[in-house]
Amino acid sequence: MTHTVSPIGFVRSCFKEKFAIPRQPQLAPAARGVLELVAPFDQGNAVQGLEQVSHVWLLFLFHQALEDKPRLKVRPPRLGGNKSMGVFATRATHRPNGIGQSVVKLERVEAGRLWLSGIDLLDGTPVLDIKPYVPYADIIGSASNAIASAAPELIPVQWTDAALLQARDHATRLEEPLVELIEQCLAQDPRPAYQTPTAEREYGAQFWDLDVRWHYPQPGLIRVLEVVPAER
Ligand code: SAM
Questions:
Q1: What is the pLDDT of residue 18?
Q2: Which of 60, 64, 86 is closest to 75 using CA atoms?
Q3: How far apart are CA 134 and CA 139, in angstroms?
Q4: Which of 3, 12, 216, 218 is most buried by its number of CB atoms within 10 A?
Q5: What is the pLDDT confidence band of residue 232, given thresholds at 50, 70 and 90?
Q6: What is the pLDDT of residues 54-106, one digit of tens each?
Q7: Considering only CA atoms, which of 220, 197, 215 is closest in space to residue 159?
Q8: Distance 185 CA to ligand 1 centre (A)
Q9: Is residue 130 a contact partner of residue 37, using CB atoms and an 8 Å limit?
Q10: Could you tell me which of 5, 6, 25, 8 has the C-alpha nearest to residue 122?
Q11: Which residues line ligand 1 (CB under 6 A)?
């Protein structure tokens, strides 16, 4: 059986590239975006009642990881990228139907627009459905997962004086919690686990319309070097 699905909207996100996006929602509460609904869901009727809900499940397409050939085993970054697992035992982006799911905080509801935080979604992500989070059914106190038993360990994030000033200026311009966003995302240590960082090696990622560059002055410590307008 095949069945066609079409997006009910698209996410405008602080994340403009996959690198440095947290591996799950809620890990960076300052990660914000807007879900822009498309017709006919852009009318107030479709979201009526959602203002009574604090969090929603988003079902979405990993549109930048779609593949023709299904994978049975994947190598999740969380396991260092060198151990393979059955695809259904992981939350990897390479999936049979390319479907992702994230619980995100609903900050504000407008006709045609949902303001979100705590997202792990790339800019432009097509959303297939929205469902309210239902605490009595969705919280399972006895649940366990020995593969992903705890949130990733955080590492300290420091700033050069110049980078912090740049981030504060852009935060004011964007009216976004940019310093917190950068700290929360970099503290997850987005570097591929197989790479041993040297102090000379610089890393970068785009948040909003900004290029953020950082390095590891020593293993397990990040220092943000600059926050400048993105060239792309
Ligand atoms: N919470 C979701 C889930 O469990 O289905 C996503 C988990 S997945 C491990 C999270 C990663 O997906 C992020 O770190 C980001 O790099 C990637 N990602 C987010 N949106 C994407 C998109 N539209 N296309 C491809 N990759 C995406």
A1: 97
A2: 86
A3: 8
A4: 216
A5: low
A6: 999 999 999 999 999 989 999 887 777 778 999 999 999 999 999 999 999 99
A7: 215
A8: 14
A9: no
A10: 25
A11: 18, 21, 23-25, 62-65, 91, 93, 100-102, 120-122, 125
Instruction: Report the DSSP beta bridge partners of residue 60.
Output: 100, 127
| Spatial contact of 223 and 207, defined as CB atoms under 8 Å apart | no
Question: What burial class does residue 22 get, using C-beta atoms within 10 Å of its C-beta: 0-12 exposed, 13-18 middle, 19+ buried?
Answer: buried
Nearest atom in ligand 1 to the alpha carbon of residue 25 is: 1
Nearest to 98 by CA among 120, 132, 127: 127
Here the tokens at position 16 are 């403009």
The pLDDT > 70 percentage for the chain reads 100
Question: Given the DSSP bridges, would you call strands 113-117 and 73-74 parallel, antiparallel or unpaired?
Answer: unpaired
pLDDT of residue 228: 98
pLDDT of residue 198: 87
pLDDT in tens, 185-207: 999 999 887 778 888 999 999 99
Buried-exposed string 42-56: b where 16+ CB fall within 10 A, e elsewhere: beeebbeeeeeeebb
Report which protein residue has its CA nearest ligand 1's atom 26: 62
* Whole-number Å distance between alpha carbons of 208 and 205: 10
Q: What's the full length of the chain, in residues?
A: 232
pTM given for the model? 0.96
